[in-house]
Amino acid sequence: MNINSDVLIVGTGIAGMYTALNLYKNLDIVMITKSTLEECNSYLAQGGISTARDEKDKDLFIEDTLKAGNYKNDIKAVEVLASESLSNIQELINLGVEFDKKNGFLDYTREGAHSVNRIVHCADKTGKKVSEALLKQVIKRKNIRIYENTTLIDLIDKNNICFGGIATNEESIVNIYAKNTILSTGGIGGLFKNSTNQRTLTGNGIAIALRKCIDVKDLNYIQFHPTGLYEDKAEGKRFLISESLRGEGAKLVNINGKRFVDELLPRNIVSKAILEEENKTNSKYVYLDITHMPKEFIIKRFPLIYSECKSRNLDITKEKIPVTPVQHYFMGGIKVDCYSRTSMENLFACGEVSCTGVHGANRLASNSLLEALVFSKRAANIINNNIRNINLKCIDKQIDNQYATNLSLLNKKIVLKELIKIRGDIKNELVNY
Ligand code: SIN
């Protein structure tokens, strides 16, 4: 079976949907997602989206991003991120996202390594609220077709030019031809025994890039979030206790009730301090304590975390929360320029699968959704401007079921192998295939 389109977008998270909404309405767009629309990682983002509050805050925001990233960031990309932050937040508001407000103004919160409060949020459900607002708009667009449970297994390419992708929905294999293809397939958390990510996030886009010799970057930069909920149970997806709790005043203490770190340092430093403290106290967790704050405030500001913990018989208004570092984010990925262009012609990458270089070696809190917005919009703009010069080519490429199965398996293993090759120390954290 063949599908012809102008633009193929692989992944229906915030990066994918925002790209689709910023493309011209007369373009024929096909979106595919490996699972369901709701099972997407963007839905899980709690904390919020950072933004330079105004022109005056831009330089400080840039400095905070660089400092958190150990100055390994791409400075040009960071400048773009900060400069275009507020306009994209405004665009989200125009698209129907209702960020929390205080006295009629955006209620900026704070997270680790930010010098000032500059994170917009929808309580602790920012990713879900933004995703829902975008999806509502995407569904209204007659020019966008969405296929769920459809996994990209390969690109259709020749001489380093991309002509679309090959996808499978278990029953059939389909060639989706496109003038431009965008990979927004997310990160790699599903490859880790403990991660805040959906288990379906197995680095599919990166695997395909590795197989096709498309440039990748910084694959050794993996972020561990300091405060995954510790549960004495099997490994898998861990519930995140948002950094914004610490931004609002929650304290980290060891099992003896002693504070041991400044909670608002960059994530890599706080995670390291927690692991050291766990070792010293011979414990598998430390505690995050927010019990000193008023109950009404906690329930209103953190409804999701309150209810998820309550469902596990933990009342965070009265009890300390056991937490431990877990895999959370991948700073590396498919190397892109400031317009999300990869090293393969007509192929773009946006969101966590891409590496713009904005995060350096350690992402500043709440910069991930911002990166997804800023650089997806830039990809859409460049596609809008250039697509009329591209002819749709349906080059001959047919694969059979056996080959498709082999490719799926290979895609699952290839990133694991690469991570072990680059960072042997990560081996114990990874799942076994
Ligand atoms: C959090 O709420 O702690 C996660 C936000 C992020 O990853 O930036």
UniProtKB/TrEMBL annotation:
Q: From what superkingdom does this record's organism come?
A: Bacteria
What SUPFAM superfamilies would the database entry show?
FAD/NAD(P)-binding domain, Succinate dehydrogenase/fumarate reductase flavoprotein, catalytic domain
Q: Describe the reaction catalysed, as an equation.
A: L-aspartate + O2 = iminosuccinate + H2O2
Start and end of every FAD-dependent oxidoreductase 2 FAD-binding domain?
6-369
User: Does the keyword Cell division feature in the UniProt annotation?
Assistant: no
* Pfam families named in the record: FAD_binding_2
Alphabetized, the UniProt keywords read: FAD, Flavoprotein, Oxidoreductase, Pyridine nucleotide biosynthesis
Q: Any idea of its EC number?
A: 1.4.3.16
Q: Does the keyword Coiled coil apply?
A: no
What InterPro entries does the record point to? Answer: FAD-dep_OxRdtase_2_FAD-bd (IPR003953), FAD/NAD-bd_sf (IPR036188), NadB (IPR005288), Succ_DH/fumarate_Rdtase_cat_sf (IPR027477)
- Which class of enzymes does this protein belong to? oxidoreductase
> Per its Swiss-Prot or TrEMBL entry, what cofactor is needed?
FAD
Pathway assigned to this chain's UniProt record? Cofactor biosynthesis; NAD(+) biosynthesis; iminoaspartate from L-aspartate (oxidase route): step 1/1
Q: What is this protein called?
A: L-aspartate oxidase
Q: Which organism is it from?
A: Clostridium brassicae
State the organism's lineage: Bacteria, Bacillati, Bacillota, Clostridia, Eubacteriales
